From TrEMBL:
Family: Belongs to the BioY family.
UniProt-recorded name of the protein: Biotin transporter
Keyword terms: Cell membrane, Membrane, Transmembrane, Transmembrane helix, Transport
Transmembrane segments: 44-61, 70-91, 97-115, 127-151, 163-188
Keyword Transmembrane helix: yes
MF GO annotations: biotin transmembrane transporter activity
Compartment(s) of residence: Cell membrane
Cellular component aspect of the GO annotation: plasma membrane
Source organism phylogeny: Bacteria, Bacillati, Cyanobacteriota, Cyanophyceae, Oscillatoriophycideae
Membrane topology: Multi-pass membrane protein
Length: 194
């Protein structure tokens, strides 16, 4: 991929990540019951933010994905309210900041693996899963370190409560988003001929 294309994907990734931060993920009721009742949507309990990170990795590659996530974190730390709970340098003390830091290695791993072989649904799903694993590993490491050194802003959460809240609870919804990201990336990579 040329530098220009990578920069376009990096800008796209930044905009997608910012927009997806505030967009809750949900799915619609099955089509076969639409005649009997109205279309209902059910929340997955997460936003599309992780999906945006992995989507850019699958389509833009490792460089574009990493650049977009570094730009996202820098924008959030400079007082622009692009994070889910605002922004600013004080966000370093938030328990969820480690997961935001995890976007960088997660995007790199996903983008690197997505372009290792010809795009197949299985390989794209695998790259997204490893990217998600990297995000959670970085987030958990940050939670443990912040718990040891007392960096946490919210002292009322114990370490195990924070692990449940930020890693275990959102995981099923994030796995559902990974399925959607892999399918969309597969078809778009076929349409874009790369």
């Amino acid at each position: 991929m040329t530098i220009t294309v990578q920069l376009l994907w990096a800008i796209t990734g930044l905009l997608l990540t910012i927009a997806a931060t505030f967009l809750p993920a949900s799915f619609a009721s099955p089509t076969w019951i639409w005649e009997q009742q109205e279309v209902k949507t059910f929340s997955l309990g997460v936003t599309y933010q992780v999906g945006a990170v992995l989507f850019v990795g699958c389509l833009g590659g490792k460089n574009a994905a990493v650049i977009s996530q570094i730009a996202y974190i820098l924008l959030g730390l400079t007082l622009l309210p692009v994070f889910s709970q605002g922004g600013g340098i004080g966000y370093l003390r938030e328990p969820s900041f480690g997961y935001l830091l995890g976007f960088i290695p997660g995007a790199w791993i996903c983008g690197n693996l997505a372009f290792q072989a010809y795009p197949k649904l299985e390989s794209l799903t695998f790259s997204c899963l490893l990217g998600l694993l990297s995000i959670h590993a970085t987030g958990l490491t940050y939670l443990i370190i912040s718990s040891i050194f007392g960096w946490k802003k919210v002292e009322s959460l114990s370490l195990f409560e924070a692990i449940y809240r930020y890693s275990i609870f959102p995981l099923p919804g994030q796995l559902g988003i990974i399925c959607a990201v892999a399918v969309m990336a597969y078809f778009l990579r076929r349409l874009l001929f790369y």
